[in-house]
Design brief:
Helix content is 6%, strand content 45%. By secondary structure, it is mainly beta. Strands 13-15-18-21-24-27-30-28-25-22-19-16 form a twelve-stranded parallel barrel. The chain has an eleven-stranded parallel sheet with strand order 4-7-10-12-14-17-20-23-26-29-31. An eight-stranded antiparallel sheet has the order 40-37-42-35-44-51-46-49, with no helix packed on it. The N terminus is likely disordered.
Protein backbone atom coordinates (compact mmCIF):
# COMPACT_ATOMS: atom_id res chain seq x y z
CA UNK A 1 0.00 0.00 0.00
CA UNK A 2 2.83 2.39 0.88
CA UNK A 3 4.47 1.60 -2.46
CA UNK A 4 1.29 2.45 -4.35
CA UNK A 5 0.87 5.65 -2.35
CA UNK A 6 4.48 6.64 -3.00
CA UNK A 7 4.09 5.96 -6.74
CA UNK A 8 0.94 8.09 -6.90
CA UNK A 9 2.71 10.94 -5.14
CA UNK A 10 5.62 10.71 -7.57
CA UNK A 11 3.25 10.81 -10.57
CA UNK A 12 1.40 13.83 -9.13
CA UNK A 13 4.67 15.57 -8.40
CA UNK A 14 5.81 14.84 -11.93
CA UNK A 15 2.74 16.52 -13.41
CA UNK A 16 3.16 19.53 -11.13
CA UNK A 17 6.75 19.84 -12.22
CA UNK A 18 5.68 19.46 -15.87
CA UNK A 19 3.09 22.18 -15.46
CA UNK A 20 5.59 24.51 -13.86
CA UNK A 21 7.99 24.27 -16.82
CA UNK A 22 8.40 27.23 -19.10
CA UNK A 23 7.79 25.03 -22.17
CA UNK A 24 5.61 21.91 -22.42
CA UNK A 25 4.56 19.57 -25.18
CA UNK A 26 0.82 19.06 -25.33
CA UNK A 27 1.15 15.33 -26.04
CA UNK A 28 2.80 14.86 -22.64
CA UNK A 29 -0.61 15.43 -21.08
CA UNK A 30 -2.11 12.30 -22.63
CA UNK A 31 -2.82 12.68 -26.37
CA UNK A 32 -5.82 10.65 -27.51
CA UNK A 33 -6.40 10.29 -31.28
CA UNK A 34 -10.21 10.27 -31.02
CA UNK A 35 -10.56 13.23 -28.67
CA UNK A 36 -7.50 15.21 -27.60
CA UNK A 37 -9.44 18.00 -25.87
CA UNK A 38 -8.46 16.99 -22.35
CA UNK A 39 -4.74 16.80 -23.11
CA UNK A 40 -4.62 20.10 -24.97
CA UNK A 41 -6.76 21.96 -22.43
CA UNK A 42 -4.58 20.60 -19.59
CA UNK A 43 -1.50 21.86 -21.39
CA UNK A 44 -3.14 25.28 -21.75
CA UNK A 45 -4.16 25.27 -18.07
CA UNK A 46 -0.72 24.08 -16.88
CA UNK A 47 0.69 27.54 -16.37
CA UNK A 48 3.49 27.00 -18.90
CA UNK A 49 4.47 30.07 -20.88
CA UNK A 50 4.97 28.09 -24.08
CA UNK A 51 2.80 25.18 -25.23
CA UNK A 52 3.99 23.17 -28.22
CA UNK A 53 1.24 21.32 -30.06
CA UNK A 54 3.52 18.64 -31.44
CA UNK A 55 3.11 16.56 -34.57
CA UNK A 56 2.02 13.14 -33.35
CA UNK A 57 1.33 11.90 -36.85
CA UNK A 58 -2.42 12.22 -36.29
CA UNK A 59 -4.88 15.11 -36.13
CA UNK A 60 -5.56 16.84 -32.83
CA UNK A 61 -9.34 16.33 -32.64
CA UNK A 62 -10.95 18.57 -30.05
CA UNK A 63 -14.03 20.22 -28.69
CA UNK A 64 -13.92 24.00 -27.91
CA UNK A 65 -10.65 25.19 -26.34
CA UNK A 66 -10.20 28.16 -24.01
CA UNK A 67 -6.87 29.96 -23.84
CA UNK A 68 -5.32 31.81 -20.90
CA UNK A 69 -3.30 35.01 -20.60
CA UNK A 70 0.47 35.17 -21.01
CA UNK A 71 0.87 32.17 -23.30
CA UNK A 72 2.45 31.20 -26.59
CA UNK A 73 0.79 28.33 -28.46
CA UNK A 74 3.08 26.88 -31.13
CA UNK A 75 1.79 24.38 -33.69
CA UNK A 76 4.54 22.25 -35.19
CA UNK A 77 4.86 21.77 -38.94
CA UNK A 78 2.22 19.39 -40.28
CA UNK A 79 -0.19 19.68 -37.35
CA UNK A 80 -3.94 19.79 -38.01
CA UNK A 81 -6.24 20.87 -35.19
CA UNK A 82 -9.67 19.57 -36.15
CA UNK A 83 -13.10 20.23 -34.62
CA UNK A 84 -14.61 16.97 -33.43
CA UNK A 85 -17.55 15.78 -35.50
CA UNK A 86 -20.87 15.70 -33.70
CA UNK A 87 -19.73 18.33 -31.19
CA UNK A 88 -20.05 22.16 -31.25
CA UNK A 89 -23.80 21.92 -30.74
CA UNK A 90 -23.95 25.28 -28.97
CA UNK A 91 -24.68 28.15 -31.36
CA UNK A 92 -21.62 30.05 -30.06
CA UNK A 93 -19.23 27.09 -29.83
CA UNK A 94 -15.92 28.16 -31.39
CA UNK A 95 -12.77 26.10 -31.83
CA UNK A 96 -10.32 28.47 -30.08
CA UNK A 97 -11.62 31.05 -27.64
CA UNK A 98 -9.74 34.09 -26.33
CA UNK A 99 -12.18 35.69 -23.92
CA UNK A 100 -11.09 38.69 -21.83
CA UNK A 101 -7.42 37.63 -21.77
CA UNK A 102 -4.15 39.26 -22.83
CA UNK A 103 -0.61 38.61 -24.08
CA UNK A 104 -1.21 35.55 -26.24
CA UNK A 105 0.67 34.33 -29.31
CA UNK A 106 -0.75 31.63 -31.58
CA UNK A 107 1.62 30.65 -34.37
CA UNK A 108 2.21 27.86 -36.80
CA UNK A 109 5.59 26.60 -37.89
CA UNK A 110 5.25 25.38 -41.47
CA UNK A 111 1.97 23.90 -42.76
CA UNK A 112 -0.58 24.16 -39.94
CA UNK A 113 -4.36 23.86 -40.37
CA UNK A 114 -7.23 24.59 -38.01
CA UNK A 115 -10.29 22.95 -39.56
CA UNK A 116 -13.97 22.70 -38.69
CA UNK A 117 -16.97 20.94 -40.26
CA UNK A 118 -18.92 23.60 -42.16
CA UNK A 119 -21.11 21.19 -44.14
CA UNK A 120 -22.29 19.47 -40.97
CA UNK A 121 -23.21 22.75 -39.28
CA UNK A 122 -25.31 23.71 -42.33
CA UNK A 123 -27.34 20.51 -42.08
CA UNK A 124 -30.57 21.22 -40.12
CA UNK A 125 -30.92 17.52 -39.38
CA UNK A 126 -27.66 17.65 -37.43
CA UNK A 127 -27.35 21.19 -36.06
CA UNK A 128 -29.39 24.12 -34.89
CA UNK A 129 -28.80 27.08 -37.19
CA UNK A 130 -25.96 29.39 -36.16
CA UNK A 131 -23.53 31.79 -37.80
CA UNK A 132 -21.20 32.04 -34.77
CA UNK A 133 -19.24 28.78 -34.73
CA UNK A 134 -15.93 30.54 -35.41
CA UNK A 135 -12.46 29.07 -35.77
CA UNK A 136 -10.86 31.73 -33.58
CA UNK A 137 -13.06 33.93 -31.39
CA UNK A 138 -11.46 37.01 -29.78
CA UNK A 139 -13.65 38.87 -27.30
CA UNK A 140 -12.39 41.75 -25.17
CA UNK A 141 -8.79 40.52 -25.50
CA UNK A 142 -5.55 42.51 -25.74
CA UNK A 143 -2.07 41.96 -27.17
CA UNK A 144 -2.90 38.98 -29.37
CA UNK A 145 -0.72 37.74 -32.25
CA UNK A 146 -1.88 35.08 -34.71
CA UNK A 147 0.40 33.90 -37.51
CA UNK A 148 1.29 31.04 -39.82
CA UNK A 149 -2.10 29.30 -39.87
CA UNK A 150 -4.65 28.06 -42.38
CA UNK A 151 -8.19 28.35 -41.01
CA UNK A 152 -10.77 26.28 -42.88
CA UNK A 153 -14.50 25.56 -43.02
CA UNK A 154 -15.91 27.03 -39.81
CA UNK A 155 -19.59 27.41 -39.06
CA UNK A 156 -19.13 31.18 -38.75
CA UNK A 157 -16.00 33.28 -39.25
CA UNK A 158 -12.40 32.28 -39.63
CA UNK A 159 -11.58 34.99 -37.07
CA UNK A 160 -14.04 37.02 -35.00
CA UNK A 161 -12.88 40.13 -33.10
CA UNK A 162 -15.30 41.89 -30.76
CA UNK A 163 -16.02 43.42 -27.37
CA UNK A 164 -15.72 41.42 -24.18
CA UNK A 165 -17.10 41.34 -20.68
CA UNK A 166 -15.15 44.32 -19.37
CA UNK A 167 -13.97 46.13 -22.49
CA UNK A 168 -16.10 47.36 -25.40
CA UNK A 169 -13.38 46.42 -27.90
CA UNK A 170 -10.37 44.17 -28.35
CA UNK A 171 -6.98 45.88 -28.49
CA UNK A 172 -3.61 45.43 -30.16
CA UNK A 173 -4.42 42.45 -32.38
CA UNK A 174 -2.08 41.20 -35.13
CA UNK A 175 -2.98 38.68 -37.84
CA UNK A 176 -0.01 37.78 -40.05
CA UNK A 177 0.45 35.17 -42.77
CA UNK A 178 -2.95 33.58 -42.27
CA UNK A 179 -5.15 31.93 -44.90
CA UNK A 180 -8.83 32.01 -43.96
CA UNK A 181 -10.78 29.85 -46.39
CA UNK A 182 -14.26 28.39 -46.99
CA UNK A 183 -16.03 29.80 -43.96
CA UNK A 184 -19.78 29.90 -43.50
CA UNK A 185 -20.20 33.62 -42.82
CA UNK A 186 -16.96 35.65 -43.09
CA UNK A 187 -13.27 35.16 -43.59
CA UNK A 188 -12.82 37.61 -40.72
CA UNK A 189 -15.34 39.79 -38.86
CA UNK A 190 -14.33 42.92 -36.99
CA UNK A 191 -17.02 44.06 -34.56
CA UNK A 192 -14.99 46.33 -32.29
CA UNK A 193 -11.21 46.72 -32.20
CA UNK A 194 -8.47 49.27 -31.58
CA UNK A 195 -4.91 48.97 -32.95
CA UNK A 196 -5.19 46.03 -35.33
CA UNK A 197 -2.78 44.96 -38.06
CA UNK A 198 -3.77 42.39 -40.69
CA UNK A 199 -1.00 41.62 -43.19
CA UNK A 200 0.23 39.07 -45.70
CA UNK A 201 -3.04 37.14 -45.39
CA UNK A 202 -5.80 35.69 -47.56
CA UNK A 203 -9.54 35.71 -46.92
CA UNK A 204 -11.04 33.61 -49.65
CA UNK A 205 -14.00 31.52 -50.82
CA UNK A 206 -16.48 32.47 -48.08
CA UNK A 207 -20.06 31.28 -48.60
CA UNK A 208 -23.00 29.95 -46.64
CA UNK A 209 -24.94 32.67 -44.87
CA UNK A 210 -24.97 36.46 -45.21
CA UNK A 211 -22.96 38.63 -45.37
CA UNK A 212 -20.45 36.11 -46.92
CA UNK A 213 -17.55 38.56 -47.23
CA UNK A 214 -13.79 38.25 -47.08
CA UNK A 215 -13.75 40.82 -44.26
CA UNK A 216 -16.73 42.57 -42.69
CA UNK A 217 -16.55 45.60 -40.38
CA UNK A 218 -19.89 45.50 -38.58
CA UNK A 219 -20.38 47.00 -35.11
CA UNK A 220 -23.40 46.13 -33.00
CA UNK A 221 -23.45 49.19 -30.71
CA UNK A 222 -22.53 52.90 -30.93
CA UNK A 223 -19.85 52.57 -28.21
CA UNK A 224 -17.89 50.07 -30.31
CA UNK A 225 -15.06 51.21 -32.54
CA UNK A 226 -12.55 50.76 -35.37
CA UNK A 227 -9.44 52.70 -34.41
CA UNK A 228 -6.07 52.40 -36.16
CA UNK A 229 -6.94 49.32 -38.18
CA UNK A 230 -4.39 48.61 -40.93
CA UNK A 231 -4.76 45.97 -43.64
CA UNK A 232 -1.56 45.49 -45.67
CA UNK A 233 -0.75 43.13 -48.54
CA UNK A 234 -3.84 40.97 -48.27
CA UNK A 235 -5.99 39.05 -50.73
CA UNK A 236 -9.81 39.07 -50.61
CA UNK A 237 -10.94 36.76 -53.40
CA UNK A 238 -13.78 34.51 -54.58
CA UNK A 239 -16.16 35.38 -51.77
CA UNK A 240 -19.91 34.97 -52.28
CA UNK A 241 -20.55 38.64 -51.48
CA UNK A 242 -18.08 41.51 -51.12
CA UNK A 243 -14.35 41.12 -50.78
CA UNK A 244 -14.36 43.97 -48.24
CA UNK A 245 -17.46 45.28 -46.50
CA UNK A 246 -17.91 48.14 -44.06
CA UNK A 247 -21.45 47.99 -42.68
CA UNK A 248 -21.24 50.64 -39.97
CA UNK A 249 -24.49 52.63 -39.72
CA UNK A 250 -24.57 51.45 -36.09
CA UNK A 251 -21.78 53.91 -35.27
CA UNK A 252 -23.26 57.34 -34.56
CA UNK A 253 -22.05 60.93 -34.70
CA UNK A 254 -20.72 60.76 -31.13
CA UNK A 255 -19.04 57.35 -31.61
CA UNK A 256 -15.24 57.15 -31.60
CA UNK A 257 -14.04 58.32 -35.05
CA UNK A 258 -13.12 55.53 -37.46
CA UNK A 259 -9.54 55.18 -38.75
CA UNK A 260 -8.99 52.31 -41.20
CA UNK A 261 -6.38 51.94 -43.94
CA UNK A 262 -6.38 49.21 -46.60
CA UNK A 263 -3.18 49.21 -48.67
CA UNK A 264 -1.28 47.08 -51.17
CA UNK A 265 -4.18 44.63 -51.30
CA UNK A 266 -6.14 42.76 -53.97
CA UNK A 267 -9.92 42.44 -54.07
CA UNK A 268 -10.53 39.91 -56.81
CA UNK A 269 -13.32 37.73 -58.29
CA UNK A 270 -15.90 38.32 -55.54
CA UNK A 271 -19.58 38.99 -56.13
CA UNK A 272 -18.81 42.67 -55.40
CA UNK A 273 -15.51 44.36 -54.73
CA UNK A 274 -15.80 46.87 -51.87
CA UNK A 275 -19.02 48.01 -50.18
CA UNK A 276 -18.93 50.86 -47.65
CA UNK A 277 -22.27 51.53 -45.91
CA UNK A 278 -22.13 54.28 -43.33
CA UNK A 279 -24.16 57.15 -41.99
CA UNK A 280 -23.21 59.52 -39.16
CA UNK A 281 -19.85 58.44 -37.75
CA UNK A 282 -16.80 60.61 -38.41
CA UNK A 283 -13.22 59.62 -39.20
CA UNK A 284 -11.53 58.25 -42.31
CA UNK A 285 -11.37 55.11 -44.44
CA UNK A 286 -8.46 54.95 -46.90
CA UNK A 287 -7.62 52.62 -49.78
CA UNK A 288 -4.04 52.97 -51.00
CA UNK A 289 -2.40 51.12 -53.89
CA UNK A 290 -5.17 48.52 -54.11
CA UNK A 291 -6.35 46.46 -57.08
CA UNK A 292 -10.10 45.85 -57.36
CA UNK A 293 -10.35 43.40 -60.22
CA UNK A 294 -12.69 40.99 -62.03
CA UNK A 295 -15.53 41.16 -59.51
CA UNK A 296 -18.94 40.14 -60.80
CA UNK A 297 -20.81 43.18 -59.52
CA UNK A 298 -19.98 46.76 -58.53
CA UNK A 299 -16.23 47.20 -57.92
CA UNK A 300 -16.64 50.03 -55.38
CA UNK A 301 -19.94 51.07 -53.76
CA UNK A 302 -20.20 53.89 -51.24
CA UNK A 303 -23.64 53.90 -49.65
CA UNK A 304 -25.20 56.35 -47.20
CA UNK A 305 -22.11 58.47 -46.59
CA UNK A 306 -22.78 62.15 -45.88
CA UNK A 307 -20.71 65.29 -46.17
CA UNK A 308 -20.35 65.67 -42.39
CA UNK A 309 -19.40 62.07 -41.78
CA UNK A 310 -16.54 59.84 -42.85
CA UNK A 311 -13.83 61.00 -45.19
CA UNK A 312 -13.34 58.43 -47.95
CA UNK A 313 -10.00 58.33 -49.78
CA UNK A 314 -9.02 56.17 -52.75
CA UNK A 315 -5.36 56.71 -53.61
CA UNK A 316 -3.34 55.03 -56.38
CA UNK A 317 -6.08 52.42 -56.69
CA UNK A 318 -7.16 50.56 -59.83
CA UNK A 319 -10.65 49.25 -60.61
CA UNK A 320 -10.24 46.85 -63.51
CA UNK A 321 -12.93 44.64 -64.98
CA UNK A 322 -13.16 44.28 -68.76
CA UNK A 323 -16.48 42.39 -68.52
CA UNK A 324 -18.30 44.87 -66.28
CA UNK A 325 -20.32 47.31 -68.40
CA UNK A 326 -21.73 49.52 -65.63
CA UNK A 327 -20.01 52.36 -63.71
CA UNK A 328 -17.21 51.01 -61.51
CA UNK A 329 -17.56 53.57 -58.71
CA UNK A 330 -21.07 54.16 -57.39
CA UNK A 331 -21.95 56.83 -54.83
CA UNK A 332 -25.36 56.06 -53.36
CA UNK A 333 -26.79 58.69 -51.04
CA UNK A 334 -29.80 58.51 -48.78
CA UNK A 335 -31.56 61.50 -47.20
CA UNK A 336 -28.35 63.53 -46.97
CA UNK A 337 -25.84 65.20 -49.26
CA UNK A 338 -22.63 63.27 -49.70
CA UNK A 339 -19.14 64.74 -49.82
CA UNK A 340 -15.68 64.69 -48.28
CA UNK A 341 -14.56 62.15 -50.90
CA UNK A 342 -11.13 62.12 -52.55
CA UNK A 343 -10.09 60.11 -55.60
CA UNK A 344 -6.31 60.53 -55.83
CA UNK A 345 -4.88 59.00 -59.01
CA UNK A 346 -7.65 56.43 -59.33
CA UNK A 347 -7.85 54.39 -62.54
CA UNK A 348 -10.97 52.69 -63.89
CA UNK A 349 -10.32 50.18 -66.67
CA UNK A 350 -13.67 48.87 -67.94
CA UNK A 351 -15.92 48.96 -71.05
CA UNK A 352 -18.33 51.56 -69.64
CA UNK A 353 -17.95 55.13 -70.89
CA UNK A 354 -19.13 56.29 -67.44
CA UNK A 355 -16.63 55.38 -64.70
CA UNK A 356 -18.56 56.89 -61.78
CA UNK A 357 -22.25 57.33 -60.99
CA UNK A 358 -24.30 59.08 -58.32
CA UNK A 359 -27.55 57.52 -57.08
CA UNK A 360 -29.21 59.72 -54.49
CA UNK A 361 -32.56 60.56 -53.01
CA UNK A 362 -34.48 63.19 -54.99
CA UNK A 363 -33.11 66.64 -54.21
CA UNK A 364 -29.90 65.46 -52.58
CA UNK A 365 -26.50 65.51 -54.23
CA UNK A 366 -22.73 65.77 -54.02
CA UNK A 367 -21.11 68.70 -52.22
CA UNK A 368 -17.41 67.82 -52.43
CA UNK A 369 -15.52 65.30 -54.54
CA UNK A 370 -11.94 66.01 -55.58
CA UNK A 371 -8.82 64.45 -57.02
CA UNK A 372 -7.93 62.74 -60.29
CA UNK A 373 -9.87 59.96 -61.96
CA UNK A 374 -8.61 58.32 -65.15
CA UNK A 375 -10.72 55.91 -67.19
CA UNK A 376 -10.71 53.88 -70.36
CA UNK A 377 -10.97 50.41 -71.87
CA UNK A 378 -7.27 49.67 -71.40
CA UNK A 379 -4.21 51.15 -69.71
CA UNK A 380 -2.98 52.72 -72.95
CA UNK A 381 -6.11 54.77 -73.63
CA UNK A 382 -6.87 56.32 -70.25
CA UNK A 383 -8.26 59.83 -70.16
CA UNK A 384 -9.10 62.22 -67.38
CA UNK A 385 -12.66 62.31 -66.09
CA UNK A 386 -14.10 65.77 -65.36
CA UNK A 387 -14.93 65.43 -61.66
CA UNK A 388 -15.91 69.11 -61.35
CA UNK A 389 -18.49 68.74 -64.09
CA UNK A 390 -19.78 65.53 -62.50
CA UNK A 391 -20.22 67.27 -59.13
CA UNK A 392 -22.01 70.21 -60.76
CA UNK A 393 -24.38 67.86 -62.60
CA UNK A 394 -25.26 66.19 -59.30
CA UNK A 395 -25.49 69.26 -57.10
CA UNK A 396 -28.06 69.27 -54.28
CA UNK A 397 -31.52 70.67 -55.11
CA UNK A 398 -33.22 71.35 -51.77
CA UNK A 399 -36.45 72.57 -53.37
CA UNK A 400 -37.09 69.09 -54.83
CA UNK A 401 -36.74 67.23 -51.54
CA UNK A 402 -39.63 65.70 -49.71
CA UNK A 403 -40.93 67.75 -46.82
CA UNK A 404 -40.17 66.49 -43.35
CA UNK A 405 -42.53 63.93 -41.90
CA UNK A 406 -43.03 61.85 -45.03
CA UNK A 407 -45.03 59.25 -43.15
CA UNK A 408 -48.51 59.99 -41.91
CA UNK A 409 -49.34 58.84 -38.39
CA UNK A 410 -52.35 56.65 -37.80
CA UNK A 411 -54.26 54.88 -35.05
CA UNK A 412 -54.91 51.17 -35.40
CA UNK A 413 -58.20 51.52 -33.49
CA UNK A 414 -59.60 53.70 -36.29
CA UNK A 415 -58.81 51.26 -39.11
CA UNK A 416 -61.47 49.14 -40.77
CA UNK A 417 -61.42 46.91 -43.89
CA UNK A 418 -62.22 48.71 -47.13
CA UNK A 419 -64.56 45.84 -48.04
CA UNK A 420 -66.22 42.99 -46.21
CA UNK A 421 -64.13 40.42 -48.02
CA UNK A 422 -60.51 39.74 -48.91
CA UNK A 423 -59.58 39.20 -52.54
CA UNK A 424 -56.84 36.76 -53.52
CA UNK A 425 -54.18 38.80 -55.31
CA UNK A 426 -50.45 39.29 -55.32
CA UNK A 427 -49.69 35.79 -54.05
CA UNK A 428 -46.57 35.62 -56.22
CA UNK A 429 -45.14 38.93 -55.05
CA UNK A 430 -41.88 38.20 -53.27
CA UNK A 431 -41.00 40.45 -50.33
CA UNK A 432 -37.37 40.38 -49.25
CA UNK A 433 -36.05 40.80 -45.72
CA UNK A 434 -38.21 41.85 -42.78
CA UNK A 435 -41.59 43.54 -43.22
CA UNK A 436 -44.70 44.27 -41.20
CA UNK A 437 -48.35 43.98 -42.10
CA UNK A 438 -51.71 44.59 -40.43
CA UNK A 439 -54.20 41.75 -40.43
CA UNK A 440 -57.84 42.12 -39.50
CA UNK A 441 -59.97 39.21 -38.26
CA UNK A 442 -63.56 40.10 -37.48
CA UNK A 443 -64.32 36.99 -35.45
CA UNK A 444 -62.60 34.76 -32.89
CA UNK A 445 -61.20 31.33 -33.75
CA UNK A 446 -58.35 29.64 -35.52
CA UNK A 447 -57.31 31.73 -38.54
CA UNK A 448 -54.66 30.44 -40.99
CA UNK A 449 -51.95 32.67 -42.46
CA UNK A 450 -50.00 31.09 -45.29
CA UNK A 451 -46.46 32.03 -46.35
CA UNK A 452 -44.35 30.77 -49.25
CA UNK A 453 -40.62 31.23 -48.85
CA UNK A 454 -37.91 31.56 -51.50
CA UNK A 455 -34.28 30.97 -50.71
CA UNK A 456 -31.87 33.56 -52.16
CA UNK A 457 -28.24 32.55 -52.54
CA UNK A 458 -26.58 29.90 -50.41
CA UNK A 459 -27.78 30.93 -46.97
CA UNK A 460 -30.18 28.81 -44.95
CA UNK A 461 -33.86 29.79 -45.15
CA UNK A 462 -35.58 30.54 -41.87
CA UNK A 463 -38.73 32.58 -41.27
CA UNK A 464 -39.42 34.22 -37.91
CA UNK A 465 -42.66 35.90 -36.97
CA UNK A 466 -43.90 38.13 -34.16
CA UNK A 467 -47.57 38.92 -33.52
CA UNK A 468 -48.76 41.95 -31.54
CA UNK A 469 -52.25 43.13 -30.70
CA UNK A 470 -53.70 46.53 -31.58
CA UNK A 471 -52.08 48.03 -28.47
CA UNK A 472 -48.62 46.76 -29.36
CA UNK A 473 -48.52 44.04 -26.70
CA UNK A 474 -46.81 40.76 -27.62
CA UNK A 475 -49.41 38.18 -28.62
CA UNK A 476 -47.39 35.28 -30.08
CA UNK A 477 -44.16 34.24 -31.82
CA UNK A 478 -43.46 31.59 -34.44
CA UNK A 479 -40.63 30.33 -36.65
CA UNK A 480 -40.07 27.72 -39.33
CA UNK A 481 -37.52 26.33 -41.77
CA UNK A 482 -40.27 25.25 -44.16
CA UNK A 483 -40.72 27.27 -47.33
CA UNK A 484 -44.43 26.42 -47.51
CA UNK A 485 -45.81 27.25 -44.09
CA UNK A 486 -49.21 28.00 -42.59
CA UNK A 487 -49.35 29.73 -39.22
CA UNK A 488 -52.58 29.51 -37.23
CA UNK A 489 -53.43 32.69 -35.36
CA UNK A 490 -55.76 31.89 -32.51
CA UNK A 491 -57.97 34.95 -32.16
CA UNK A 492 -59.74 35.52 -28.87
CA UNK A 493 -62.72 37.68 -28.04
CA UNK A 494 -64.25 39.73 -30.81
CA UNK A 495 -61.26 39.77 -33.14
CA UNK A 496 -59.63 42.97 -34.34
CA UNK A 497 -56.41 44.11 -35.95
CA UNK A 498 -53.05 42.44 -35.35
CA UNK A 499 -49.58 43.71 -36.23
CA UNK A 500 -47.43 40.90 -37.62
CA UNK A 501 -43.72 41.19 -38.31
CA UNK A 502 -42.08 38.70 -40.67
CA UNK A 503 -38.33 38.24 -40.99
CA UNK A 504 -36.96 35.74 -43.55
CA UNK A 505 -33.41 37.14 -43.26
CA UNK A 506 -31.96 37.91 -46.68
CA UNK A 507 -34.46 35.60 -48.33
CA UNK A 508 -37.94 36.23 -49.75
CA UNK A 509 -41.46 35.35 -48.75
CA UNK A 510 -44.86 35.65 -50.43
CA UNK A 511 -47.85 36.55 -48.29
CA UNK A 512 -51.21 34.97 -49.14
CA UNK A 513 -54.22 37.22 -48.42
CA UNK A 514 -56.73 36.05 -45.84
CA UNK A 515 -59.19 37.42 -43.29
CA UNK A 516 -61.18 40.61 -43.82
CA UNK A 517 -58.46 43.17 -44.41
CA UNK A 518 -54.71 42.93 -44.90
CA UNK A 519 -52.21 45.68 -45.67
CA UNK A 520 -48.45 46.12 -45.63
CA UNK A 521 -47.21 48.73 -43.21
CA UNK A 522 -44.90 51.01 -45.22
CA UNK A 523 -43.56 53.36 -42.56
CA UNK A 524 -40.20 51.93 -43.59
CA UNK A 525 -39.22 50.60 -46.99
CA UNK A 526 -40.87 47.41 -48.20
CA UNK A 527 -38.23 45.45 -50.12
CA UNK A 528 -39.38 43.55 -53.19
CA UNK A 529 -37.51 41.02 -55.28
CA UNK A 530 -37.71 40.59 -59.03
CA UNK A 531 -40.78 40.02 -61.08
CA UNK A 532 -42.70 42.40 -63.28
CA UNK A 533 -46.20 43.69 -62.93
CA UNK A 534 -46.14 43.91 -59.13
CA UNK A 535 -48.93 46.27 -58.05
CA UNK A 536 -49.96 47.77 -54.72
CA UNK A 537 -53.00 49.90 -53.88
CA UNK A 538 -53.12 52.80 -51.41
CA UNK A 539 -55.58 55.43 -50.27
CA UNK A 540 -55.38 59.13 -51.18
CA UNK A 541 -57.46 61.16 -48.68
CA UNK A 542 -60.24 63.40 -49.95
CA UNK A 543 -58.53 66.60 -48.80
CA UNK A 544 -55.11 65.69 -50.22
CA UNK A 545 -53.77 67.90 -52.99
CA UNK A 546 -51.27 65.28 -54.13
CA UNK A 547 -50.26 61.66 -53.85
CA UNK A 548 -46.69 60.75 -52.90
CA UNK A 549 -44.57 57.61 -52.86
CA UNK A 550 -40.92 56.82 -52.49
CA UNK A 551 -39.23 54.21 -54.69
CA UNK A 552 -35.68 53.03 -54.10
CA UNK A 553 -33.83 50.91 -56.64
CA UNK A 554 -30.93 48.80 -55.47
CA UNK A 555 -27.71 50.04 -57.01
CA UNK A 556 -27.18 48.67 -60.54
CA UNK A 557 -30.69 47.16 -60.45
CA UNK A 558 -33.10 49.72 -61.98
CA UNK A 559 -36.88 49.53 -61.85
CA UNK A 560 -39.74 51.03 -63.90
CA UNK A 561 -42.46 52.83 -61.91
CA UNK A 562 -46.04 53.84 -62.68
CA UNK A 563 -48.58 55.66 -60.51
CA UNK A 564 -52.21 55.17 -61.47
CA UNK A 565 -55.18 57.24 -60.26
CA UNK A 566 -58.57 56.00 -59.09
CA UNK A 567 -59.72 55.49 -62.70
CA UNK A 568 -56.68 53.32 -63.44
CA UNK A 569 -55.06 55.97 -65.63
CA UNK A 570 -51.26 56.33 -65.52
CA UNK A 571 -50.61 59.81 -64.11
CA UNK A 572 -46.84 59.41 -63.58
CA UNK A 573 -44.31 57.07 -65.15
CA UNK A 574 -40.54 56.88 -64.64
CA UNK A 575 -38.39 54.35 -66.45
CA UNK A 576 -35.16 52.90 -65.15
CA UNK A 577 -35.16 54.42 -61.68
CA UNK A 578 -31.57 53.91 -60.46
CA UNK A 579 -31.68 55.44 -57.03
CA UNK A 580 -34.16 56.55 -54.38
CA UNK A 581 -36.81 58.90 -55.74
CA UNK A 582 -39.55 60.81 -53.97
CA UNK A 583 -42.41 60.99 -56.46
CA UNK A 584 -45.14 63.57 -55.94
CA UNK A 585 -48.20 63.69 -58.20
CA UNK A 586 -50.51 66.77 -57.93
CA UNK A 587 -54.24 66.13 -57.64
CA UNK A 588 -57.25 68.35 -57.25
CA UNK A 589 -59.28 67.91 -54.08
CA UNK A 590 -61.85 65.16 -54.13
CA UNK A 591 -65.13 64.80 -52.28
CA UNK A 592 -64.09 61.38 -51.05
CA UNK A 593 -61.09 59.18 -50.42
CA UNK A 594 -59.70 57.56 -53.56
CA UNK A 595 -57.78 54.35 -54.06
CA UNK A 596 -54.73 54.79 -56.30
CA UNK A 597 -52.09 52.24 -57.18
CA UNK A 598 -48.35 51.87 -57.62
CA UNK A 599 -47.17 49.47 -60.33
CA UNK A 600 -43.75 48.15 -61.27
CA UNK A 601 -43.94 46.98 -64.92
CA UNK A 602 -40.31 45.86 -64.95
CA UNK A 603 -37.44 45.41 -62.48
CA UNK A 604 -33.99 43.92 -62.75
CA UNK A 605 -34.13 42.40 -59.24
CA UNK A 606 -34.22 44.22 -55.86
CA UNK A 607 -36.12 47.44 -55.15
CA UNK A 608 -38.20 49.01 -52.40
CA UNK A 609 -41.12 51.37 -51.90
CA UNK A 610 -43.08 53.24 -49.27
CA UNK A 611 -46.34 55.18 -49.28
CA UNK A 612 -45.82 58.75 -48.08
CA UNK A 613 -48.03 61.41 -46.50
CA UNK A 614 -50.71 62.57 -46.95
CA UNK A 615 -51.72 58.94 -47.56
CA UNK A 616 -51.78 56.37 -44.80
CA UNK A 617 -48.62 54.20 -44.89
CA UNK A 618 -50.62 51.16 -45.97
CA UNK A 619 -50.51 49.16 -49.20
CA UNK A 620 -52.48 46.11 -50.33
CA UNK A 621 -52.41 43.81 -53.34
CA UNK A 622 -56.10 44.48 -54.05
CA UNK A 623 -58.25 47.54 -53.29
CA UNK A 624 -60.73 45.36 -51.38
CA UNK A 625 -57.97 44.27 -48.99
CA UNK A 626 -57.00 47.77 -47.85
CA UNK A 627 -57.53 49.07 -44.36
CA UNK A 628 -58.95 52.58 -44.14
CA UNK A 629 -59.74 55.10 -41.43
CA UNK A 630 -63.36 55.09 -40.36
Amino acid sequence: MNAIKTAAMLIAAGFCALGAQDTVKASAFGFHPEDATAALQKAIDSGARKIIVDNTGKDWITRPLFLRSNQEIIFEDGVTLRAKKGEFKGVNDSLINLNNISNVVIRGEGAVTLAMNKKDYDNPALYRFSEWRHTISIRGAANIKISGLTLKSSGGDGIYVARGKNLSYSKNITVDNVTSEDHYRQGISLISVEDMLIRNSKFIRTGGTAPQCGIDFEPNRPEERFVNVVIDNCDFSENASAGIMFHIPGLKENSTPVSVTVRNSKINSNQCGVIVTTKEVKGEIRFENCLIENNHGIPFLLNGQNEKGLKIVLKDTVCRNLKYELPSIVLAGESADIGNIMLDNVKVIAPSSVPIEFNGMTGYGITSLSGTLLYGKDRNSLKKFDLAKFVAANAPKPSERAVSGRTRKMEFAKLVPAAGKTVTAGEKIRIRRSFRFLQCFSSPGDHPLRFTGYRIGKGKYRLQGTVRDRNGALYDRFSTDKTDFTYHLKVKGGGGIFLIEINPGGHCVSLHPTGSGQALLTEGNVNLFGGKGYRYYFTVPADAEYAAVEVAATTAEPVDVQILNAEGKIVKEIRKVKSAQYIKVPRGKSAKDEIWSLRFPWAREDYAFRICAPSLPLAATAPENLLMEK
